[in-house]
Give the backbone structure.
Amino acid sequence: MVSISFLNPLSPEGKDIVRELGSFEGISDDIPELRRLVTRNPSQEIVDDKEIPSNYLELALKRIEWYIKKKHDREFNSRRYSFLSDYSITKYDVISFYLLCQAIGVKFGPNSRETRVMVEAQGDLIQERMGKLSIQESRLMVDQSLAMLLHDDMVHWTFFQELLSTRKIRLTELVLDNGELILNEEDFLHRFGSRIKHRNPDSMYQLLIGDELKELIMVKMIMQETEDYIKQVHEKARVMVEPNPILLELADEVAEVLAEPMQHYGYGSGRSGGPMKAGPLNPLAFPPCVKKALEGIKSGGRNDAIVLFMTPFVSYARLYPDVFRMNITKRVSDQDPQLQITENEVLPLIYEAAQRCVPPLFDDQPQEKVNINAKLGFGMHSTLKMEHEGETTWYTPMSCEKIKLHLPHLCRPDDVCKKIGNPLSYYNRRIWEVMNLDKEDSDSEDNPSSNNVDNIQNSDIQNSDIENSANNENKNSDDSNSGEG
Amino acid sequence: MDLKPATPNERRQYYREEWDVNDIPEFIRKTLTQREFGFDHMGRGPNDRYRVFQNTDYLRKFMRYRTPFAAYSSVAFYHKPRRRDGWIKAELVFDVDAKDIPIRSCGCENVCEICLNQAKDIVHGLIDTIQGDLGLSDIHVVYSGRGYHIRVLDDKVMGMDSDVRSQIVKYLVGSDVPRSEYSSHGMKYNLEHFTVPFGYPQVFTDRVKQALLNLNLDTEIDEVSKDIKKAVIKHRELLSEDQWGLFRKEIGPVRYARLVKGIASLNLTLVDAKVSIDLKRILRLPSSLHSGVSMKSTLIKNLETFDPFQDAVPKFVYERKD
């Protein structure tokens, strides 16, 4: 029988397993039983004996490695990780889960890429494991888990505040009535049965809620709990004495596994590794919203479009296109010490867009020049001076989500837009394609179509590592909140 | 009625002879000291901000002496409103501006009776969803001068961040096309939004219906050709009887999909989303004068019977000689 802790290590059963282990003593010792379970698994493929995890720490790393390879390695072979879906490893798996959360919590904290990967890996792993169960088994597991997670039969949607805020679930995905989330079939039929015409209410329940929505909520809630747990560990570690060196070592190894795809598989559109270097702007790679803003804003929202949208985009695209992947806050002068590029390339492009507005933005609102400087991090001053840098923060580019809300008329998505969450990710993705195209073009000049940017086939490699961190937006909207118009 | 701006003299007359501090809704008066106030004295935007009033009497005096062009108060409650610091919570607000309704049947330049009525219909729909689907209460509707503000003071949502608020906006306005493909036990099924008479698909259906019934040939919708619009106008009476299946068949399933996608993205401008997600917004003070159009921002007791041209016109407008 599958234990609930195989899906949710944070459940009481999972906690019991940790309690039983007691301490870190012997945590890196060999566990012959674990090796035996892995090798005994009939669907397991073993290419090299070294691949078999032989203790908790190795198992922990395998969990992360599985996720990273699945996402980035085109030659990923799931049979080499079959053991991860075999519930006989539950008690080892639970411990390795806690080790990972603690290592990541202690070393990297809740807002790190490591945390994001851990949380997503846990979500994917649950789904993978659910897929291996029979329908009856998985229903039972989902019902039991939800009963535990939701505490109550009737749940108000506001209970999912955190999941909604982190966009793990969308409000439009939930079936709501009078504020309550409808999950139970009887409840569903009682509330909506009489309204449903020409269809069988039972089958409508199966389609709209049934197993799928319940499973989604369960998975996302466990992901959220995982994230919360890492946060807790991080907060505790800050006030406690030295963390256990085993955890720090594991954290370093996790970081190594995460760094691997950058070296081996490359990020983004199949480009060959290495960080995104800053370079001259290439308008061919601009996303549709930026192109549209460059054409000039004709009606309302001129200030937002130029100050809040274009200024961060243009400056980051030119000076620090890697910001979301690096996840390190910088100042403009870290990238442009003499501010020459900023003065000669960044500002002119922003001013050009401002000039094309109808009416030209600075004609009636010259003070917006000061606001542009502020968004570049140089305080509320009319000129860029090093001594003022840091008085304000250098705003990171708005996400697509925010653009849709603030500047809906700019958002005219194309195919590439579907794969990204921030215009800067669009630029980073396209700039490689455009550059490669230039290269190809000069290699074979008799190929006229290669000059046409619209002909580029987009690679389907997942790019989520880059744009997920695009959620890191400026929350300080203080100076942007004007009165109602 | 001519919606022309109020002169400084008219403003003075309004605040000294007509306005009473007790016209400010109770939900603001009782939380006065936690809110930031902002004023626009010259008609160039609210640049006199960070004002705090310790009691209604101070506010009364301020309004009488300064007779501002426009007055605002924060939707946020603060520990230190003077510094806009110590944020406690904020009303959840939806701003429906008649001028910005994406599909307007009137085609007027500014606002008129037709688009104000249309705004009212939108407000009705939004409130139904706020109560019926989201189960929220303590909802107040204010006529803003050019449209309506829905202000929700339910403690269940007042602590929520911008991200949750943006999800609420999307749900209410119907800005995502609900999925139509579902699967169960390996089988695929098709359920169009209009076949689901509850939850978000129902909200979406209502909003699309509202848009289609008001659409005209000049309405610009992404990737929706004039031919599609013509077909909509020709067959839309089917929607009055909720014959969605037939309507979709007449339009053609591919064109129908394009049509609802276009409307979904237009729906995002049914309310000004910026207002809803801003946790520190200042909003026109109910009872104050909208000097740009010479109308009173008014707390509405009964939305059904409210008529801005009856209930929100200050006396001085009737006394104008020209």
